[in-house]
Amino acid sequence: MRTTSNPAFRNLPTGGYAGFGSPQQAAGYGYQQPAGYGGYQEAPPVAAERPITIDDIVTKTAMTLGLAIVTGALTVAFQLYALALPALIVGLVVSMVIIFKRTPSAPLVLTYAAVEGVLLGAITGLFEHLVPGIALQAIAGTFGVFVAMLVVYKTGAVKVTPRLTKWIIGATVGAAVLMLANLLVGLFGANLGLRDGSPMAIVFSLIVIGIAAFNFLLDFEQANEMIRTGMPAKWAWWAAFGLMTTLVWLYLEILRLLSYLQRN
Question: 171-194 as b/e, with b when 16 or more CB fall inside 10 Å?
Fold first, then answer.
């Protein structure tokens, strides 16, 4: 059963990382049993890679977000808004490479963060030009939702059960289908009323923000599972990438909602 709608976490390899403590379980990580007596030369044991910790995930996520903030700020400062489309394309390509490569890569994740920062900076700059002050509101809103969902997860106020997981994944897929349908219909001059700033669009945007927020619970659970199973520390970059994809989605949706509210 799929345990998350986040494509990064959904492509995690399963099994084979627990039990780093014993030589038998670490055999797949370069450990060789001593040959014992009989004249054979013993191969020195090769230490297994250090298991991932919560500090690894927090550090890598902070580095990823920090880089995105820097590139975004530079984009706004120099008004490089024309880079929005190239950044969108490059970001999509890099994210697909990361997902299908199925191995953590710090350079790729940092590249993705830098490009997404440019994209968000360009979009934010345009919105800020139209509605002064909206950027700070969107940033504060995104940070607030992230912290709130982290508290909800850590306190156990909402348990990530298989039933909740199925609901969140289903809602995410449903929202994506509706947004795609709205885009396709718009190409033919029609309008479903989901992205035009109408009351229906505001309600839909609130629903999407709620879905994105609940996706954080699945992201936190997947990151926690990586720690429980003792995956190598390098996978913290993968967790950082997964968390950032949800943050980008949430931020853009909050930015969109605030723009709707300013019109009304």
Answer: bbeebeebeeebeeeeeeeeebeb
DSSP structure string for 133-202 = THHHHHHHHHHHHHHHHHHHHHHTSS---HHHHHHHHHHHHHHHHHHHHHHHHHHTT---SSSSSSHHHH
What pLDDT score was predicted for residue 251? 97
Q: What is the dihedral of CA 76, 116, 113, 90, to 10 degrees?
A: -120
pLDDT mean values, one per 10 residues, the chain (264 residues): 59 49 36 39 56 96 97 96 96 95 93 97 94 95 97 95 96 96 90 92 97 97 95 96 96 96 81
Predicted pLDDT of residue 181:
94
Residues 160-167: contacts with CB within 8 Å, 24+ apart? 160/217, 160/218, 160/220, 160/221, 162/1, 164/214, 164/217, 165/1, 165/2, 165/3, 165/4, 165/218, 166/1
Q: What is the pLDDT of residue 116?
A: 97
Report domain extents, the chain. Answer: 48-263
